[in-house]
Structures are given as C-alpha cells and as structure tokens.
Amino acid sequence: MRSRYTAFSVGDAVHLARSWHPRTRPDDITVDDGTEWTGLVIEDASEDGDAATVAFRAAWRHGRERGEVRERSRFSRRGGRWVYVDGDID
C-alpha cells in the first residue's frame, strides 16, 4: 500500500501498473499531475493467506482544494508479491 501511495505521489504509472492485479488493472493508468498527495494513514490491515485488506486515508491538495480519500483496498499475493485487486471508497 505504501509503495502505491508513493507511486501516486511521484506520478509513477509504471509502478502502479506493476502493482495492480492483471484481472482488474485498467488499460490506461493516468496519474493527475496537478494533485499533490500530502499524507497517508493506515487505519487497519489484515492478512488471510494470499489475501489481504488495508483500510487507509490519503490526504491530497489540488491548487486551493484539499481533500481526503478513504478506501478499504483488497490485495492478493501473486508470485510472492502483493498486488492491488480493488477497493471500496468510503
């Protein structure tokens, strides 16, 4: 989760694609250059074999606007690596 947050922060679409499950990965991953990610808080995490969930809050700023994304993300272990499957935004 932290590496994906960092990838969003620095605009690394290649890492986002590599860390996304191929079954759910969109064809085009675009990172918004105008959004500055300003903080990540992991609220909860659990692991059950090759499945995991992470609940987090990520703060952002875009010009004068500020906001926060809250999501419960699902991950799957593939080939020894955790990949993002999908998530529910609160």
Q: Could you characterize what this model shows?
A:
This protein has one domain: Nuclear Transport Factor 2, Chain: A (Roll), CATH 3.10.450. The protein has two helices and four strands, in the order H-H-E-E-E-E. The longest helix is centred in the first third of the chain and has 9 residues, at 2-10. The protein has 90 residues and is an alpha+beta fold. The model has no long low-confidence stretch (mean pLDDT 96). It has helices spanning 2-10, 13-18; strands at 36-48, 51-62, 65-78, 81-89. This is YchJ-like middle NTF2-like domain-containing protein. Residues 1-87 form the YchJ-like middle NTF2-like domain.
- Average per-residue pLDDT, rounded, comes to 96
In the CATH classification, which architecture applies? Answer: Roll
Global geometry: globular
**Contiguous uncertain segments of 5+ residues:** none
Report on the biggest sheet.
4 strands, antiparallel
Distance from first to last alpha carbon = 17 Å
**Tally of individual helices:** 2
Order of helices and strands: HHEEEE
In CATH terms, what is the fold-level topology? Nuclear Transport Factor 2, Chain: A
